[in-house]
Amino acid sequence: MTLLGSVPDGYREAVLFSILALCWGSSFVAIEIGLEYVPPLLFAGFRYAIAGAIVLGYAAVATDQVRPETHTEWLAAGVAGVFVIALYHGLLYLGELYVPGAVAATVVSTAPILTAAFAGVILPEERLAPAGVVGFVLGLVGVIAVVQPTSAAFTSEVTLGVALVFGSAIAFALGSVLTRPFKSDLPIETLQAWAMLIGAGVLLAWAAVRGESVSSIAYTTETFLSFGYLTLVSGVFAFFLYFELLERSGATQVILVSYAEPVVAMGASWVVVGYVVDSLTIVGLLTILAGFVIIKRRALYELVRSTGIGRPTPFATDSRAADGCSSARTRTDGGVEFDSSDD
């Protein structure tokens, strides 16, 4: 599927990158708005049930495999659904009950750094070099800057919210690492659809355990706008953008979307809800970004040396064949699958 066909080829990657960052960065603010009217886990569960069904319909048309067939493929979809969709979004939505979307986006941007750390511990073929440890520590320092630790802060709802959102980043990172060993030829569209559907089922079951009820939903204009935007724009449309950008540019360039998202979220928070982030939140984001740059310094150097927008980079790869594992490309707004082998 080729989107933005009218855009000149030399500019298409930049346009795809910008629109994807806008879709996923603004999703944090859309979540913040929707949580005023919908219980968090029901909100996330219904969103991904519908988005998953739509993406599955697309997979049925665009691919030759509409469902996982082997034990490995089902396991990959299950792990991605539980960690990358259910736990990530469940904790994120719960966290946004206490912190603004812009703050949540900043904390979530630690996911690539956390992925590198988990890969170094869990995967025997990867290890975190000293520079990677420095990058990981900088990521944690960035989160602490967002919390702004004082004696009052550690007893506040903000700390609880940041802890929940940081837990969502941990879940996403852990899911990215755990799916990496699964080798399969399952099309990324099919994997993504089933991960969404499995994750939606877990979220709705979690909502029932938590006592959330459909009767508590307030059916307002804001409810429908927020839900529709998250499902159709930040969900379905953005995933199609992601599929194309990944195939055109490769994983390293797509990872950078994760660091554009907080900037978009900050701007959207100011425009839509009038929230202005403070200087320490910006310092935290820059510190997290510095940690990422240290970990991915070689890949970023090669990316800068490449011939530029619209021409092949050393990381261009087909999303179905990368690392021999389609599941490594499972994605959700707010985090990016991360390859730590660069360090």
Automatic annotation (TrEMBL):
Instruction: List the membrane topology term(s).
Output: Multi-pass membrane protein
Q: Where in the cell is it found?
A: Membrane
User: Where would you find the membrane-spanning parts of this chain?
Assistant: 14-35, 41-62, 74-91, 97-121, 128-147, 159-179, 191-209, 224-242, 279-295
* Domain EamA, residue spans: 15-147, 160-295
Annotated keywords: Membrane, Transmembrane, Transmembrane helix
Q: Does the keyword Cytoplasm apply?
A: no
Q: Where is this region: Disordered?
A: 318-343
Gene Ontology CC terms: membrane
Name under which the protein is recorded? EamA domain-containing protein
Query: What is the source species?
Result: Halopiger xanaduensis (strain DSM 18323 / JCM 14033 / SH-6)
The major lineage groups are: Archaea, Methanobacteriati, Methanobacteriota, Stenosarchaea group, Halobacteria
